[in-house]
């Protein structure tokens, strides 16, 4: 009779049903714990106020810039209202959009600064703006980090001593210092020097967002370089020898033989690095970049709703990272085919 041990032993249907039930039980206990804990805290939950921070409709006034009489109030073919005010210095015309409300009528006398109409403007709220900036910063840093990491990874295994030592120096310095310190150095040191130089030559200053992008990209590039280096070295050297024996140059062998095989192996660690990058972008709030975490902190300060807003912030980060993880898994499956 065959003896099975460990993972070789076949599992019956009851085994999987039992452990699925254990998982469901653990999740239900977790939900019950948080429900009981939230009920025990003296806190008023106001989830109904959260949507206004995603999309907001603001009322905007159309104000007169001159004092005088309202000589005409006309409706255009598009449905807008055109208001003409005649003052001592001439006439001024103001337009209220079709969905707006006219606050005056013909023959009225108005003063400079008085509202003549009002309309609503719908726009993204502060949380959506912060989410967009987080996504923008992360994508830019990922693209630059990939390019920098691949170049540095190839230099790391180069036979050229200058390239290899430069790559090692870059990797060790970046990986050996905290990201927050690097963000401060980029913004307060590099940013101050560059903006002062640009001011002298008459150019505009670089926004803080780009210093944050460079800090994240250079930080990520150091880790991507080591991932690329490990992936290339994991491919058997016989692959390079076979490619060179077929008449390929070193660059052709890398591009057509080694890198495609290494790419499939480095996808999982790259996904983890990119997910960490999205979360690390929350540090850019210290240099006045209004990404998702800083936007949430500002809303919490004004609304006094820390529980709801920080939970929403965590869920938004989860959506970003989970989506990125699915994209990398899709690319990994395509690469295996």
TrEMBL record:
Source organism, top-level taxon: Bacteria
Q: Does the keyword Magnesium apply?
A: no
Q: Which Gene3D superfamilies match?
A: 2.40.50.100, MetI-like
Pfam families (alphabetical):
BPD_transp_1
Q: Where in the cell is it found?
A: Cell inner membrane; Cell membrane
Give me the segments passing through the membrane: 15-37, 137-159, 179-198, 210-232, 309-331
Kindly list the biological process annotations in GO that this record carries: amino acid transport
Query: A single GO molecular function, which one?
Result: transmembrane transporter activity
Do you know which InterPro entries this protein is assigned to?
A: AA_ABC_transptr_permease_3TM, ArtM/GltK/GlnP/TcyL/YhdX-like, MetI-like, MetI-like_sf
UniProt domain ABC transmembrane type-1: residue ranges: 131-328
Q: Give the UniProt keywords, A-Z.
A: Amino-acid transport, Cell membrane, Membrane, Transmembrane, Transmembrane helix, Transport
Predominant location category: membrane
The membrane-topology field of this record reads: Multi-pass membrane protein
Question: Which Gene Ontology cellular component terms are annotated?
Answer: ATP-binding cassette (ABC) transporter complex
Q: What is the recorded function of this protein according to its Swiss-Prot or TrEMBL entry?
A: Part of the binding-protein-dependent transport system for glutamine; probably responsible for the translocation of the substrate across the membrane.
Q: What is the protein name stated in its UniProt record?
A: Putative glutamine transport system permease protein GlnP
* Species of the source: Nitratidesulfovibrio vulgaris (strain ATCC 29579 / DSM 644 / CCUG 34227 / NCIMB 8303 / VKM B-1760 / Hildenborough)
């Amino acid at each position: 009779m065959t003896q099975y041990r460990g993972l070789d032993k076949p599992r019956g249907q009851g085994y999987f049903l039992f452990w699925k039930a254990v998982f469901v039980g653990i999740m239900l206990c977790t939900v019950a714990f948080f429900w009981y804990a939230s009920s025990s805290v003296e806190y008023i939950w106001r989830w109904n106020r959260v949507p206004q921070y995603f999309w907001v409709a603001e009322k905007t006034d159309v104000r007169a810039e001159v004092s005088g009489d309202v000589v005409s109030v006309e409706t255009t073919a598009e449905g807008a209202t055109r208001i003409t005010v005649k003052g001592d210095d001439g006439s001024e015309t103001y337009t209220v959009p079709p969905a707006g409300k006219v606050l005056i009528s013909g023959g009225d006398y108005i003063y400079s600064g008085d509202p003549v109409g009002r309309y609503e403007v719908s726009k993204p709220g502060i949380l959506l703006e912060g989410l967009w900036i987080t996504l923008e910063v992360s994508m830019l840093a990922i693209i630059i980090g990939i390019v920098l990491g691949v170049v540095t990874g190839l230099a790391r295994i180069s036979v050229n001593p200058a390239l290899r030592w430069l790559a090692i120096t870059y990797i060790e310095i970046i990986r050996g210092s905290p990201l927050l310190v690097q963000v401060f150095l980029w913004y307060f040191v590099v940013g101050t020097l560059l903006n002062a130089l640009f001011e002298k030559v008459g150019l505009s200053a670089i926004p803080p967002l780009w210093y944050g992008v460079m800090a994240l990209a250079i930080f990520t590039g150091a880790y991507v370089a080591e991932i690329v280096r490990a992936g290339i070295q994991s491919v058997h050297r016989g692959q390079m020898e076979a490619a060179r024996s077929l008449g390929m140059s070193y660059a052709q062998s890398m591009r057509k033989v080694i890198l495609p095989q290494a790419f499939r192996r480095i996808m999982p660690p790259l996904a983890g690095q990119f997910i960490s990058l999205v979360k690390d972008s929350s540090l850019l709030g210290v240099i006045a970049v209004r990404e998702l975490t800083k936007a949430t902190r500002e809303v919490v300060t004004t609304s006094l709703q820390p529980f709801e807003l920080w939970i929403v912030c965590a869920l938004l980060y989860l959506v970003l990272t989970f989506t990125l993880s699915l994209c990398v898994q899709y690319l990994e499956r395509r690469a295996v085919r």
